[in-house]
Amino acid sequence: MEEKLRRMEELVELLNEAARQYYQFSSPIMSDYEYDKLYDELVNLEKETQTTLSNSPTINVETEVSATLEKVEHPSPMLSLAKTKSIDDLKSFIGDKKGLLSWKLDGLTIVLTYKKGKLFSGVTRGNGIIGEVVTENVKKFKNIPLEIPFKGDLVVRGEAIIKYSDFNKMNDDNVSDGELQFKNPRNLCSGSVRQLDSSVTAKRNVNIIIFALIEADTNIPNSKKEQFDWLDSLGFETVERVEVTSSTMEEEVLNFKEKIKTYDIPSDGLVLTFDDSAYGESLGSTAKYPKHSIAFKWKDETVETTLLSVDWMASRTGLINPVAVFESVEIEGTVVSRASLHNLSIMGNLHLGIGDTIEVFKANMIIPQVANNLTMSDNIKIPDKCPVCGEPTVIETINKVKYLYCNNDFCPAKLIKRLSLFTSRNAMNIDGISDQILSRFISEGILTSYRDLYHLDDYKDEIVNYDGFGEKSYQNMLDSINKSRKVKLPNFIYALGIPEIGVSRAKLICNKYNNDFDKVRNLTFEELSAIDGVGDVIAKEWIRYFTNEEFIHELDDLIKELDFEKGNDKGNKLQDLTFVITGSINNFNNRDEMIEFIEQNGGKVVSSISSKVNYLINNDVNSTSTKNRMANELNIKIISEEEFMNMVGGK
Known about the structure:
This protein has 651 residues and is an alpha+beta fold. The protein contains 24 helices and 26 strands. The strands form seven sheets. Strands 14, 15, 16, 17, 18, 19 and 20 form a seven-stranded antiparallel sheet that branches. Helix 1 (2-24) runs antiparallel to helix 2, helix 12 (415-422) crosses helix 13 and helix 16 crosses helix 17. The longest helix is centred in the first third of the chain and has 23 residues, at 2-24. The termini are far apart.
């Protein structure tokens, strides 16, 4: 008994940490297969010992909320669903009732609230009790109805997802030396929805699929099917579902299993719920699970094969990812020979060695993964040099997960990331060059440095013959490049990609020294660290860049192509005033434009409330949001955008 209890403690700690890494940081430390296996082991031990530990994931909601977004408490806890891999369990669950069988979508759960027909708020599931407010990001979803014909209060739940087709396109546009920037649609979606800058969300083609009607200020149909039909009529995209009974269950599950092979929306199983809503609610719930629904997960088809090698793929971020290469096997109808190992922690847990017999499977019947290692030779050596540039690698532990990195800022694998930032809107603002085009230029040797961008006319004959390019696209790109030759110094400094130097901080430094580039590039540590908003850590990064011989050489070549223009300062109406901006923006195209306007008038914008802040700009001045509460506690004046515009006398 004592040994079983110790094992239960180990499993609880391990499973809770795995869930925390997966949900809060989108950084798995084990495969889904391994998690399910350990979870089932814990469930069986709890049955045997008739003991459940207080922090067991079998009774507690497993996720946490991030520390950066505004928080709000859900009106009622959002519970998980009990799970099974047995069709017989589904038949037993539904009994003689009628049910709805639908996809279990694999994304990020969002609660949408509409008031008077307009989208009022979007909140993540969070830990099921406290969610994160992501309203501005939700408004950027590709298929979100911002206004609906129903004018009463309405609350629905949906899953924010990125389709495989969009995910694959983004990876095609962001490929570097064969390594993909984004690992899977769920992690990308989670990161996209939790962005502090909604413009990033807008670029990611996030969709939302509604899977539940929670409440409405009207007579809600008792039938779940009719509820979905009503939501369809309001303009929502609802989850695909089918009516089932115990006699049709197996056939419909198999139909879904066949569909998932080509289904464009990430799914990790199915959900069965009673069509009779009142009956389902009358069943109540356990501490963790409602009894009106149950989740069905696919049984993973594992196949044995032999590990041939581990490839180390350097990405644009400096992360070096291990990839298992094994003898080709057929799984779920396709032949696979490679599977990402995600990070050093997962690889280490598998104790891999060349020639080992491993079991591989397709997570959610889509993504190849290594499930088990049957021989565990544990002889894979972690490379001490980057496979691309040959510089030393470092192992970093982030949130208890180990990763391998190349810290050489000028590694060729990172060139596409550097150039992508360099050409972006807030940097050099060069249109017509996607990451896909940059990748091709780099792979064909046309681009090896920043300077090369300003000599693409040497390669006109090659470029105009690219698929989908031609004379017009080439000329538009060249015109934009030439236009960028005249640039404000802060935007140029930001374009160089110095760690922790965004546009605002670049403006602080450049304005302090009158936009004198020679002075700015030769600032001492003492001069930098004395600037409010810079500090010692950022000053060290700045000095590290501007004393790197390779960087200096590239910089000297680049500035011969450029002409630094003076800033367009409007005056000093906001001199020495510090602002925080929250909520919607009405008088500017986006938050960046408002920040620039404040800075041009001599003000400063920061992201968090502190005693150094003079004003919080929020069009909902009476909101009970975290920022408003903190501002009131610190006696910081909360003003609307209209009051702010009156303060500066308009644009």
